[in-house]
TrEMBL record:
Keywords: Heme, Iron, Membrane, Metal-binding, Monooxygenase, Oxidoreductase, Transmembrane, Transmembrane helix. GO terms for molecular function: heme binding; iron ion binding; monooxygenase activity; oxidoreductase activity, acting on paired donors, with incorporation or reduction of molecular oxygen. The chain crosses the membrane at residues 12-36. Belongs to the cytochrome P450 family. SUPFAM superfamilies: Cytochrome P450 (SSF48264). This is Cytochrome P450.
Length: 504
């Protein structure tokens, strides 16, 4: 007897029904986003309004290129554009100042800032009110007075950098200043925020492999924003497995995370009994905040973001400023003359207080901060309860409204020849008017808490290096340092060797 093969018709029918429902749901969602959403009237590409895959393509598959597509959109559609189903981007310097005023009480956009993977850190905090509490616990430590008090700590790192560069001079070796600056910034912030420095400046090649892996991690962080299981998976990989896969730089990054965890645990365990010089993490642990705000997790996340934010941004600004000085010998010569006219021993370190009084150095620092714009990523904000307005557009509560520091810094109506390095623009009568639009650390309640520390590093490094050494560029051009990828900080082309100099 022949039997007909059994066909689970119910399974086939269920699959068909499921697929039909998926298609109907997708069509309904796209129709709503394009025609019924309160944001439907905002100009922009229909594909960007319909799906987040548009951003995914540019930021993940093309590796941090959405920033350039957003620039193109503004050229086509105007000052306000819809860049995703739930987010609009505004290019307007005056609106930036309004949105980030001192009285602003906006939240961060949770989806966007998920790339940090550190919700307990001040930087990753979404709620305005909770952020204000968390910032208060560390603000005193980053005050101008405290940075001045701890200047010897920064000077120690600058002196070590000078010593390393002197070795390169004597040996006739080309110095990789991009990675040297990253190492210095890492040593400063870890000494400042953690129980001990990471001593990156001791690395013979200025930790080139480690810094390369960190660049890869910033790219991965962009993927994590869209696929938020990536970092949990990485954190679940045991150390022995990473040691087999990549026993060098990747293992160093893993051990860095282990260092953060051990430091946080030790500080919490010794709360009230630690007699060492307090650090930022000690300030949090010993604050009057609730126990949950002084937890090990909170300290780990704060350590991660402080080191991450304090390394690449400062390192990039130092690299860009140094490059443009060396590419413009007349400006480098003018700076060196100003530094040498102080008449002190060339071998003695210059103090932060003395360097701040130098007008051309101050102009160089300001222009370096502007042209480097070391926070490339957009800064989306959300009003949770009230609608926001821009021109004739009413943006309902819950809408992510983003703006970019770069758009202000490269606005030709404010900074003529904006893509040219012109410290002189900060010496004339227009200086006071321009200062309002110099926003490298953003503005308002969410401005960078470490700005005073960063400024001290910039003055002490640029001032002391250009007083001590003559340098010239080696196989380095502007394209090597110009942003090719936006991983929140700007990164140059993947094949760039960074800022390479001969120390004379």
């Amino acid at each position: 007897m022949d039997y007909e093969p059994y066909e689970p018709a119910w399974l086939l029918n269920s699959t068909v029904v499921f697929l039909v429902l998926v298609v109907i749901s997708a069509v309904t969602l796209v129709t709503y986003r394009l025609y019924l959403s309160p944001l439907a009237m905002i100009p922009g590409p229909k594909l960007a309004a319909a799906t987040g895959w548009y951003e995914f393509y540019y930021d993940c598959l093309l590796a941090g290129k959405y920033i350039f597509e957003i620039e193109r959109m503004h050229q086509v559609y105007g000052s306000i554009i819809r860049i995703s189903p739930c987010e609009v981007h505004v290019k307007d310097p005056e609106y930036f100042l309004q949105l980030n005023s001192s009285t602003s009480k906006l939240n961060k956009y949770a989806w966007y800032y998920n790339f940090v993977a550190a919700p307990d850190a001040g930087f990753g905090t979404i709620s305005h009110d909770l952020h204000r509490t968390r910032r208060a616990a560390v603000a005193k430590y980053f005050s101008t007075a405290n940075v001045t008090r701890l200047e010897p700590l920064i000077q120690k790192c600058v002196s070590k950098l000078i010593s390393r560069l002197e070795e390169h001079r004597l040996e006739g070796k080309v110095a990789d200043l991009s990675n040297a600056y990253r190492c210095l910034a890492t040593d400063v912030i870890t000494e400042y925020a953690l129980p001990r420095s990471r001593l990156m400046l001791d690395s013979p090649d200025f930790a080139a492999g480690y810094n390369r892996v960190l660049r890869d991690f910033t790219n991965i962080a962009t993927w994590h924003r869209h696929i938020p299981i990536i970092f949990p998976i990485f954190n679940a990989i045991p150390r022995w497995a990473i040691a087999i896969i990549d026993p060098g730089p990747s293992l160093a990054v893993f051990d860095n995370q282990k260092f953060f965890k051990e430091s946080a645990a030790n500080i919490v365990a010794s709360r009230g009994r630690d007699k060492r010089e307090p650090t930022v993490l000690h300030e949090i642990s010993n604050s009057n905040s609730s126990l949950s705000e002084r937890s090990v997790s909170r300290l780990i996340h704060e350590a991660q973001t402080l080191v991450g934010a304090g390394t690449e941004t400062t390192g990039n600004t130092l690299s860009m400023t140094t490059f443009y000085l060396l590419a413009n010998p007349d400006k480098a010569g003018r700076l060196k003359k100003e530094l040498m006219d102080l008449g002190e021993d060339r071998g003695q370190p210059m103090s932060y207080q003395a360097l701040q009084k130098l007008p051309f150095l101050t102009a160089v620092i300001s222009e370096g901060l502007r042209i480097s714009s070391s926070v490339a990523g957009r800064l989306p904000r959300v009003s949770p309860t009230a609608a926001m307005e821009y021109n004739s557009y009413l943006l309902p509560a819950g809408t992510a409204v983003s703006m970019s520091i770069r758009d202000v810094h490269f606005d030709e109506s404010i900074f003529p020849d904006a893509h040219h390095f012109k410290p002189e623009r900060w010496l004339g009568d227009e200086k006071r008017a321009l200062e309002e639009y110099l926003i490298p650390f953003s503005k308002g309640p969410r401005s960078c808490v470490g700005m005073n520390l960063a400024l001290a590093e910039l003055y002490l490094v640029i001032g002391n290096l250009f007083r001590r050494f003559d340098m010239k560029l080696v196989d380095t051009n502007e394209e090597d340092l110009t942003m090719a990828h936006d991983f929140f900080s700007p990164f140059g082309p993947t094949d760039s060797k960074g800022l390479r100099v001969a120390v004379l």
